[in-house]
Amino acid sequence: CEDCGKSLIGECKLHGPLIRAKDRVIPSRARLTLPHYLTLRVLELRAGNEQILGVFAKKVIQKRTQFGPYVGQLSTKLTRYDESRLVLQVLKDGGKYFLDTPNEDCGNWMMFVRLARNQEEQTLVAYQHCGEVYFTTVKPIEPHTELKVWYAADYAKFMEASAVFIKEEADVCPLPPVAKEPVDTWICSSCGSTFATFALLESHQCIHKDRV
């Protein structure tokens, strides 16, 4: 204590504790690389204060806008897996490696982009070029729209993935194209009329009974 001129174990009982000044919090490398017209939003807060983040547009982003390359560590296995993010691999020196991002200081902002569950919400396509992975917009992105990505056709083959994935609740699974069901599926046995729902058929059959 400079007031007492004594070296003490712990705080000074006479003059009290020191006033602690904290260092300024520095954003991670990944957050610092975010382009100025994009922003991160917290979509969900899980146990242990784990934040689920999404990348959103702050202004209109034109179609065919390229982002990248994706920054990550080349690894033979993933140290961190998130079902809401794409698994990415590249071909380097004849070997196939994962682009691993165990923490935010090992990657860039592209690690926050979530996967698209269907073609309607997909705004980006991921592909490999010269041993690097890039994301390119497949349509104009309006302000406040989340950027979501899926594999390009050739890259999907390289990743041994489906061309389109659809997320059902907590699971992500490839689904075959679903044929549209005919609108009129319920047929009246009395007159042959068709109806979209069973309730409509029942109402119609009441008319036949009234007539009888």
Automatic annotation (TrEMBL):
Keywords: Metal-binding, Transcription, Transcription regulation, Zinc, Zinc-finger
Domain C2H2-type: 186-212
Native species: Urocolius indicus (Red-faced mousebird)
CC annotations in GO: nucleus
Example of a GO biological process term: regulation of gene expression
SET domain span: 38-152
SUPFAM superfamilies (UniProt xref): SET domain
One family name in Pfam for this protein: PRDM2_PR
Name of the protein described by the UniProt record: PRD15 protein
Encoding gene (name): Prdm15_1
Cited InterPro entries: SET_dom, SET_dom_sf, Zinc_finger, Znf_C2H2_type
Matching PROSITE patterns: SET, ZINC_FINGER_C2H2_1, ZINC_FINGER_C2H2_2
GO function terms (MF aspect): zinc ion binding
Keyword Repeat part of the UniProt annotation: no
